[in-house]
Specification:
This protein is α/β, with parallel strands linked by helices. Helix content is 29%, strand content 19%. Strands 3-2-1-4-5 form a five-stranded parallel sheet, sandwiched between helices. Helix 3 packs parallel to helix 4. The longest helix is centred in the middle third of the chain and has 14 residues. The radius of gyration is 16 Å and the shape is globular.
């Protein structure tokens, strides 16, 4: 996993300074990458803002995860979601994460200023590949603007 600017470039007084540019982040993870997500969030400056989406198999996985105060963490419980509309299928791994991240990106990362957003995808291959395809194809992000888990890099 590639490290994002950590607290070494920020401190509490820098974050409170007038005109300080806050880093905006989009983080996507699943049950297999919870530890990576927690590590990433622990390295972000206190002034970081953005969204964290974490897809898990069921409610028993939902817990408390430390994140900077200006970041919203959304847990996506697969057992409470459905798959393809009209099929009655259960939500497959990666589906809820892909839908949520793509919807968020379409609404919040749709202008030129959003290309400064730090995007980190820690989920499995299916979700990560679909999200990267959407961000690069539909929203015009360059592939090097998106950080993926090291094991996924060879496939994307």
């Amino acid at each position: 996993m590639t490290s994002v600017d950590s607290a070494t470039s920020h401190d509490a007084s820098a974050c409170r300074a007038r005109g300080h540019a806050r880093a905006h982040h989009l983080v996507a993870a699943d049950e297999h990458s919870l530890a990576d997500a927690e590590l990433l969030l622990a390295t972000l400056p206190l002034c970081a803002s953005g969204r964290v989406f974490i897809e898990v198999p069921d409610q028993s996985w939902v817990g408390r995860i430390a994140a900077p105060a200006r970041m919203t963490v959304t847990w996506l419980d697969r057992s409470a979601r459905r798959g393809a509309p009209g099929t009655g299928e259960l939500c497959r791994p990666g589906t809820a994460l892909t839908r949520s991240v793509v919807a968020y990106a379409d609404e919040m990362l749709c202008d030129d200023e959003s290309h400064g957003t730090h995007i980190t995808l820690l989920g499995g291959y299916v979700a990560t590949a679909d999200i990267v395809e959407h961000l690069t194809g539909s929203l015009g992000f360059a592939r090097d603007e998106i950080t993926v888990r090291d094991g996924m890099r060879a496939y994307l």
